[in-house]
Amino acid sequence: MQNRRVAVTGLGAVTPIGNDVPTFWEALIQGKNGVSHVTKFDTEQFETKIAAEVKNFDVNQFIDSKEARRMDPFTHYGLVAGDEAIRDSGLDLQNEDPTRTGVVVGSGIGGMIVYHSEHKKLLEKGPRRVSPFFIPMMIPDILPGYLSIRHGLKGPNYSTVSACSSGSHSLGVAFMHVQRGDADIMITGGAEGVITEMAFAGFSSAKAISTRNDDPAHASRPFDAERDGFIIGEGAAMVVLEELTHAKKRGAHIYAELAGVGFTGDAYHITAPHPDGEGAVQAMRLAVQDGGVPPDMVDYVNAHGTSTQLNDKTETLAIKKLFKEHAKNLSVSSNKSMIGHLLGASGAAEFIATALTIEKGIIPPTINYEIPDPDCDLDYVPNVARERKVRIAISNSFGFGGHNVCLCVKRFEG
Questions:
Q1: Which residues are catalytic, by number?
Q2: Which residues of the chain have pLDDT under 50?
Q3: How far is CA 287 from the centre of its chain?
Q4: Over the stretch 337-348, which tens digit does the pLDDT of each residue have?
Q5: I need a surface site. Which of 70, 86, 112, 336 has the fewest CB within 10 A?
Q6: Nearest CA to 309 among 403, 224, 369?
Q7: What count of Cα atoms within 13 Å lies in the side-chain half-sphere of residue 199?
Q8: Predicted model pTM
C-alpha cells in the first residue's frame, strides 16, 4: 500500500516571544530577543541568572482556575497551544470520528516545577502535605491525556521523551500514524516548563548554559565564535497533522507538507554529540530520502543551533558532510537565538517556524551572530530575516543521550 501524504493544517504556540502563532512568527522575523533575567526564583546563588521565560501568560484566561491548579505549567502551555492549533485548523472535532484522531506530545522532563514545589513540602511539612494530584501533575504523558479528554479524542495517545528531541520525535511518530493509516488526524508537538532552581543547578554543574548575565539580549548566539552555552527556555508548540485527502476534502488551509522523517542514535556519549556528526548526518539523509527528494533540492535548514561550542560546530560539519558542495547554497538559521532552548518543546516550535518559512518565503534570522567561527562557516542568515522561496526545508533536533531527529518539510503545491 502506498504511504498516505500528510498535511500541516493547524499551528499553536506559547513561547518566550509570543503566546500565539501570529505573535511568535512576527517576533521571529523581526529578530526579537526573548532572553532576560529570571523572575521565577531568586538566582543569587546561581552562576546563571538568565532564561527565556514565557511572559504575560495568564492561564486562567484559558483554563478553569480550579483545574489549572491541578496542572504543572508545562501542561498549561501545551493545552493552550493545542487549543490554538485545533482552532487554527478549522476542524470541527465533534463531526470527526474520535477513534481516527490521536494525540502525541513530547516533553523532555515533564512536571519539574511541581516536582520541586511538592518535594519542598515533603521536606518541610511531611508526606501528608504532598498533593494527591502530584503524580498526574508531574508525568509527561498527562498532557496528551488532558488534550484527548478535553476534545474527546480516542486515537493513538501517548508521550515521547527523548530530551531535546522529544517534540520532533512526537511529530515524527504522529506523521507515521497518519502515513500508515492508524489515524486521519493527529494533534502533536511538545511542551516544557523547567525554569526552576533544580534545573538551573543541574545544567550549571554540567557547564551547559550561558553565564552572559550582564548582557542577556546577546547571550544566545548560535554559531558565533563567542557562544558560551545555551539559554533555558520554556513553552509549547502544537501542530495538527492531517491526511492530505481528508484535509483537501474539507477545504483546509495547508501550510506545508510533512514529507519525511529521520531518527538515529549516536551511540557515543550521554551529553556530547558524536565528533564526526555521524548520527546527525544519517538523520538528515534518512529524512530527505523518506521525503523522496535529493539533498541538493533542500533550500533551508532550521538548525538545532543551541549556542554551545560542541553542537554548533558538529552540526555545521554534519550539514557539510551530507550536502557537500550544495551546503554553500543553503540558508541555515537557529530560532534558539531568539527563544532560547525550549528543550522538549524546541523541535515543535522550530517545526512551526519551518512550515511558516516555506509558506511565507521569509527565513527568520540567527540573531547575535557577530564574530565568525572558522568551524562554523555556513550561511546562518545573520541578524536580519531574508526573503527566499523555500521549496524544501529540514528541521534538526538533537538530544542528550544521542537522540537525533530530522523532519523534511515540503512546500504544498496541490
A1: 164, 304, 341
A2: none
A3: 17
A4: 999 999 999 999
A5: 70
A6: 224
A7: 28
A8: 0.97
